[in-house]
Structure formats: structure tokens, C-alpha cells
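Reviewers asked in the last cycle whether our approach scales beyond single polypeptides. To address this, we selected a multi-component target totalling 706 residues and predicted its structure end to end. The input consisted of the following lines:
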Amino acid sequence: MKIAILGHGVVGSGTAEVFLKNKKSIEAGLGKEVALKYVLEIRDAGEFPDCAYSDCFVKDFNLILDDPEVTVVAELIGGIEPAYSFVKALLLKGKSVVTSNKELVAKKGAELLAIAREKNAAFLFEASVGGGIPIIRPLNQCLAADSINEIAGILNGTTNFILTKMFRDGMGFDEALKLAQEYGYAERDPSDDVNGIDACRKICILASIIFGKRVNPDNALVLAEGISKLNREDIAFCESKGGTAKLIARAVKRGDKVEVSVCPTFVSNDSQLAGVSDVYNAILVRGEATGDVVFYGKGAGKYPTASAVVNDIANALKNSGASSTLIWDEEEQVLSEVTFAEKFGNIRVFDNL
Amino acid sequence: MKIAILGHGVVGSGTAEVFLKNKKSIEAGLGKEVALKYVLEIRDAGEFPDCAYSDCFVKDFNLILDDPEVTVVAELIGGIEPAYSFVKALLLKGKSVVTSNKELVAKKGAELLAIAREKNAAFLFEASVGGGIPIIRPLNQCLAADSINEIAGILNGTTNFILTKMFRDGMGFDEALKLAQEYGYAERDPSDDVNGIDACRKICILASIIFGKRVNPDNALVLAEGISKLNREDIAFCESKGGTAKLIARAVKRGDKVEVSVCPTFVSNDSQLAGVSDVYNAILVRGEATGDVVFYGKGAGKYPTASAVVNDIANALKNSGASSTLIWDEEEQVLSEVTFAEKFGNIRVFDNL
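The resulting structure, written as C-alpha cells, was:
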């Protein structure tokens, strides 16, 4: 069994490293040998000196697509194109694909899952939400026997780092953003993070899983720009109520529709979400029988994300039909308004959160 | 497909209820009809008035064992006997078994897993640790591609409730225990909880999963009796260090051996474990690539536990070979001493916790 990696950036190189390091235990779990055969990368292998797998580097995607030995491919390029065309072509050939690409899953997941199901291939994306936190598989396999009506989380590490600096260390937004950029936590153009677009894609993926229908990120209420406007009064308001503000992405079932939002939200200090600092992420799942369950961990970063990708690779190698129970053929109706218990400045307060 | 439930106590009746409530969605996931056929119970069905499935009550275990229609059985009796004999007989007949019985799994899990593997049946026990918190399946399926060297958790709700009352509300141990008994959180004989035996069984189950060898509860260092002796000085010590005390069950790899302990432990307020109050549980998993991941939720109670049992039933119905990757044939060597960074009164301080 051979695998291929598309893209040798931070997550791609981490995936190769984690895969090679844990190859023996993956093989023990499978009862078969497995090898990395290709790394698709525009740059020359010579640009990665001391790379232990430099003979795997190729620039032609068709080498991978047409190689019958390759059964599982990790797409770690990011963005819609060429990732979408590559993934679609691979699935249509019956190869399994794993990805950390939340934009691809949020926008094209329904179509790609349908192709995977038809071809009995796996399309797995644990790493697309919450980095190293196991959340997609537990939602699918551990909480499936319960009715889940609400999910709320801190899904963007960059904004959580900024809010931590603003609340804990008294920094202003601009200063905190600059620090995040210095640490490499924020891009030079941080708009997808700061405006809530990244968190919105992730909550829509989670909502699609728990509600069993495609939730379109374009229909969500995204008020995340408020974090750049947070001021002394907002902070004082949260502290006076015994809590803090977090950028909460949330999806709630209301009858036959759902409410989906991303906005700066009051979180009481009693909540497990209040103590989630810096670049950590956490996801609260509210099950009817199970009650509140929270998953916490590193939501991004080279090795946490790579670890989730490699685990998906191992699962896809083991059982190519693993994703076939996910069906997002229908689109979920999203309410155009979100119900708040209270609003103060840039802060929303929700009931029971 | 038919299922049976052994024992109609709190978890047994909750399991029947959650199963019947979510029957349609379980059937949709399976693509087949499934029904509850038997409830094994010593008491007469007449003692459960308004029970919707009173025609399922039987007193003879052999009816279930010998019925070829029954493919999955939930053992919810608790304790070693007759649970052990029943489960072994069922697995030997090739029926899948799910259980919430931590004593059975900790003491007899290795043997029962071996029988299940041989008979291609499932032996699943998600509900045996952490109640409604998904932890066993995520460890098996989501973090398997990472090296996990440490796991530490608040695994006993009764003692966590008592410690919360002692630290937050200034109660003494006896007063807090009495309150726990009034609320139904503690048994009349609370010794298995207070002495750490319950938490020890659970950490040994988790350690067996991450290390792939049987970890014997009899070899662990259990110093949990310390919680009944906690005094003003211990509490002041924890507060002066910016934290609290929790009954932490912990397993750490040290070379080719493991350190397993249950004792009152200092937890810094920065830790996600510090905010775990009342009867909630949380488990910290420390992966080399993934970093720290924490799973939080209700560690006990009728519906959270029943929900985990029903989910295992659904998984066993779907894939009877689901447990076959777990092998505990060898016994893990447990160190007879545990390394503390510091000790004050009844409180142990560990590095990095």
C-alpha cells in the first residue's frame, strides 16, 4: 500500500514526518506494509535539504492519479483550486482522500462525500476542524446515538490568542494582532481569521455532521468583526458579569431550521470554554442524553494537525468505506436572525452558554 | 436484528429508554430494523409499572444465550459475578457484548477481548470510563497514529464533588460526603470511590488502551485515602500555589515500564482540569505530536452512561469485529514507586501537570 501527499508546506512536511515516525505502529495496526511514494510540490526537492524522502518529490499530479499502487492521498495544499480538482479526480478513480482543508470541506464537502460514497472510497477531514482535537470522528461515531441540538466552540486560534492578550494582559486589539503576527499565529493579511470566516467554515462543517445536512457558510450570521472594536467598556461588562469574551462559533437547532453564528460572546468563568487561552481551541457539544461534552486541545500547528491527518490516513488505509455514512445531499435551512439573551456594545450574551 | 439488556437498574433502564427513543436513527445508520427482545432482571416486570417493554422481561439467562436472533447484548449488572460468566458465555457463542462495568473490564478485559477477537465478535466498553464522555473510541481511533506517553484524569465524580465542596464552599470532608450521599452521588458505603479503587480501575483501562498491554489495578499506587484527611493547611498550600487539589488518576510511560497512581494532586488554575467541578469528569491525554487534549463531560449518571452504551450497541450492530484491534495479551510492568516533584501534607505535586 502506497500513499501520496499533495503540498509540502507546514502541514504537508509535518504529515510526512509524523507518518514516517509512526510507520511501524500504523503497519502493525493494518497488518500490512505501507510506504510514502509521492510528495507533490512545486518547489524542487533541492529546496528541502536533509529531507529523508527527497526521492518522493514530483511536480506532475497525473503521476499520482494514474498510479494504481497509490490508494490514499493527503491533500494539504489548502484553498479551493487546484485542491478541489485534484481531490475530485482522485475520488473518481476510487482513491481515498484525507484533507485538512476546511474551505474545501465547507464548500465542496457534500459533492466530494457523494463521489466517495459512490466509489466506496474514504473522504476524511478530521484535521479540518480543531487541528489535533478529535472532534469529527467522535461526533460521527460516539455521539451518533444521542440527539445533539447545539454545538458551540472556540474554533480560531488566532482570534483566541488576541482576545487572551486583550483580556488577560490589557493589550489593545492592534497591539495583540501585531504580537500574533510576530509569533506566526496570524497571517500578514489576517482578515479570514479576524472576520470570522475561518471559524464560520469550521462551525458549518460541524453543523453539517450533527444535523446530517449541508450547512452553507454563506447563510451564517458572522459578526466577528466586533473583536477588532472591543473596548474597555466591553471588557468591563464581561468582567462585571463574572466572565470573559470569546469568539464563539455556534449552531443551534430551532424546529426544522438552524441558527448559525460567529460573534464575540460572553462566557461565564464557570464554563469550560472560559479557561481556553492563547491558540487553544475547544468545542462544546450539547447532547440530550449525554449532557455537555467539551473537547479541548491545539486547534492548529504543524504537529497537532499532521497527527490528525496521519490518523485519517491510517483509517482510510484500514477501511476505505469509512466516510460512506456521511450524507449531505440536502441543504439545511439557516435562520437569518440569531436570538440573543442580551447585547452590550460588541458583546452578545446567549442563554445557557 | 435483536438486542438484549442484562440488568434493569439505573443504567439498564436508561439504556432501554435511550435505545427506544433513538431506534429510528440507529436503524437509518444501519439500514436495517433492530428491536429490543429481552431484559434480564431478577425483579418481576410488574415492579416497573408503565414500562413500555414489559413483555421483554425474562429471568432465565439461557433464553438470551440460546436465541440465535440476539446478536448484541448489553451487560449492565455490574461487579464480577454473574456478569463475567454471562459475558464470557455470550462471546463464546459469537454474540457481541457492550458493557459499562469497569471492574469487569479492568480485571477480565484481556481474556474477554481475546475471546471476542477469536469469535469475531465485538466487546465494547466506552461507558466503563468517563460515562458519557467519548474517550475509549477516540483513544483507539483518533490518536492511534501518535505516541501517547501520559494520561491523567478526574475519573471519579463522587470524590470530585466532595473536593469541590471542600475547596469552593469550605466544607469538611465528612459534611461534603454526607451531602454527596443525600444527592445520590455517593453510595451508603462510599469506600470504592473514596479509597480510589474506582478511579484506579478506570485509569488502568485507559492505560491498557494507550500502552497496548494489560495494566493490573493491583499494581498501581493508590493514595486516595488522603482526600478524607485533607485539612486547612493542604487547602491553603494549593491556594498559595495558585491552584486546587483534585483526585488525579494518572499513568505515565517511563522507559519500558509505566507509573500508575491515584492520589490528591495539586492542579494549577491554568490547567483545564482545575475548572472541572462537582460530578464532572475530565481526561487529559498527552500526545507527542498532538500535544495536550482534554475530554470533559458527565462521568456518571443514568442518561450520559446509557447514551454511551447505546452508541456501543449501534457500533456493535454495524461492525461486530470492531474491538478486534485491541490486544492485551501481555501484562505491562508497573513501577512500584511514583515520582513526585513535591509533597505537602496530603497533596502531591507532579511536574507538568
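The longest helix of chain B spans residues 102-119. We regard this as preliminary and will revisit it once experimental data from Aim 1 are available.
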